[in-house]
Amino acid sequence: MPKFSSPSSYFLLFSLALCFYSSSNAGSSHEFPLSWSLSASQNPNGKHNSTGDVASDLRTWLSAAMANQETCIEGFEGTNGIAKTVVAGGLNQVTSLVSDLLTMVQPPGPDSRSNVERKVAEKNRFPSWFEREDQILLQANGVTADVVVALDGTGTFTNIMDAVAAAPDYSMKRYVIYIKKGLYKENVEIKKKKWNLMMVGDGINGTIISGNRSFVDGWTTFRSATFAVSGRGFIARDITFENTAGPQKHQAVALRSDSDLSVFFRCAIKGYQDSLYTHTMRQFFRECKITGTVDFIFGDASVVFQNCQILAKQGLPNQKNTITAQGRKDPNQPTGFSIQFCNISADADLLPFVNSTPTYLGRPWKLYSRTIIMQSYIGNAVRPQGWLEWNQDFALDTLYYAEFMNFGPGAGLGGRVQWPGYHALNNSAQAGNFTVARLIEGDLWLPSTGVKYTAGLGA
Questions:
Q1: Does residue 219 fall inside a structural domain?
Q2: Which of these three, 73, 88, 111, is where a domain ends?
Q3: What's the domain count of the chain?
Q4: If you ran DSSP here, which 8-state letter would residue 446 be given?
Q5: Which among 75, 151, 336, 415 could bridge 370 via Cys, Cβ 3.0 to 4.6 Å?
Q6: d(CA 372, CA 370)
């Protein structure tokens, strides 16, 4: 199969994928894969709203298309099987095409990556779509709100969804929504047309967005999210997202993000099973608190967690806790989870039951699941084996799980699993592939957010 490396070749490949998708799903009532891409292409500024690394952007978008197809099929769980079979048959053709396109797109090499980074550096390392006044605003660590949400009526709106609806579509400028202290009991959805929104709260103990949708109560996992964001360039700061359905309601998402180039800073994500759904695209979490029980960080995004607290909770009797369930389906997808400089421990409610509640770093949701834990504290809640099977020997040969320079009572490698796909790294070059600079191309877009980050392995 031919390899392509020029921007014109990439554009042609992606256009072919869009055309194939559009014709094969005409008239569908579902929001199927790649619809976000189509909406972007309708906007004349869409081509500027990216990192500038064409190969990386294309691989990210194609990977998201593949994940979206899988999510669509998963939404038919619990049906009589006929509808699921019909839909799966049609989507398999698209999946095959996307997989082929991923093999054609060359991963960015060191030379091409350095060239892109140099070009961005020449422009003060801000993407082309970021306005100069926004750069000054964020560099100064100040935020000027466009609208204010307040439960007591002292703001522009009393609920968050009204503020989201008022935000401009396809905005190339940062649009800031300040959410005052309060408990907001609403399900928020930021659709793909809402670009570059920023939400700022009054701290994780002040501004709380709360919902209780769950799988048991009839919601798909995807639609159970208390807060869901698809519009690219989203930033959240000083907000709690929670799902209060409880462990007995099984899948119940607090936060779902499909937002490319999104950042969550000093936020809390609270739930039990499936708390945080990092569904697709490139995401960054810094100084966040994430709590849950089963697979409570899951999805198929390319995501880095830095300086976060990741806390396992007490769930149902005899239940095993698994922190991650990464969903990479194809070996050419650039996706994966990187947990760096974090604290992985037991939450307060689990502490008395640490010895009787097995907790693991993760398990393979999909065939090529990929997760690395590095330079982090691992507490005694984590079992010596470290990792858990999904279903017997499924994916144990094809997954990529790794640990690098961790410390703490749960970080010992002597009792770790002996799977072919597990790696105890002692090579910084290998670990470097999962840094902010490499996994999510953070140097190309994170400076514009004003959020602190570490690009490489340095503390």
A1: no
A2: 111
A3: 2
A4: G
A5: 336
A6: 7
Give the domain extent around 101.
7-111
Phi–psi pair at 278, nearest 5 degrees: -85, 85
Residue 202: CB partners within 8 Å, gap ≥ 6?
179, 180, 181, 238
Give the separation between CA 23 and CA 324, rounded to whole angstroms: 36
Assess contact for 21 and 61: CB atoms under 8 A: no
In a domain, 194, yes or no: no
Q: What is the pLDDT of residues 84-134, one digit of tens each?
A: 677 767 777 788 888 889 998 877 665 555 554 544 444 444 444 444 444
Q: What share of the chain is helix, strand, coil (3-state, %, to 5)?
A: 30, 25, 50
Q: How far, in Å, CA of 343 to CA of 289, rounded? A: 10
- Which parts of 130-286 fold into alpha helices (H)? 132-139, 160-166
- Indicate the length of the chain as a whole number: 459
The verdict on whether 295 is a catalytic residue reads: yes
Report the candidate in 327, 395, 444, 433 with the shortest Cα–Cα distance to residue 63: 327
Residue 49 domain-assigned?
yes
Q: Which of 256, 269, 263, 255 is nearest to 283 (CA)?
A: 263
Q: Which of 53, 134, 260, 295 is catalytic?
A: 295
Residues 6+ apart with CB under 8 A from 265: 235, 236, 237, 238, 285, 286, 287, 288, 449, 451
Rounded to whole angstroms, the Cα distance separating 353 from 410 reads 16
User: Which residues lie below 8 Å from residue 94, measured CB to CB, with a gap of 6+?
Assistant: 20, 21, 24, 33, 65, 69
Task: Give the Cβ contact number of residue 34 at 10 Å.
Answer: 25
> Is the entire prediction scored with pTM above 0.85?
yes
- Domain with residue 337: its CATH number is 2.160.20.10
Residues in Cβ contact with 382 at an 8 Å cutoff, skipping those fewer than 6 apart: 344, 359, 360, 361, 410
Q: What is the 3-state secondary structure (H, E, C) of 337-365?
A: EEEECCEEEECCCCHHHCCCCCEEEECCC
Domain boundary among 111, 136, 162: 111
- The CA-atom distances, in angstroms, between 298 and each of 41, 195, 215 are 29, 24, 16
Which of 240, 260, 358, 290 has the alpha carbon at shortest distance from 36? 260
Residue 96 lies in a domain: yes
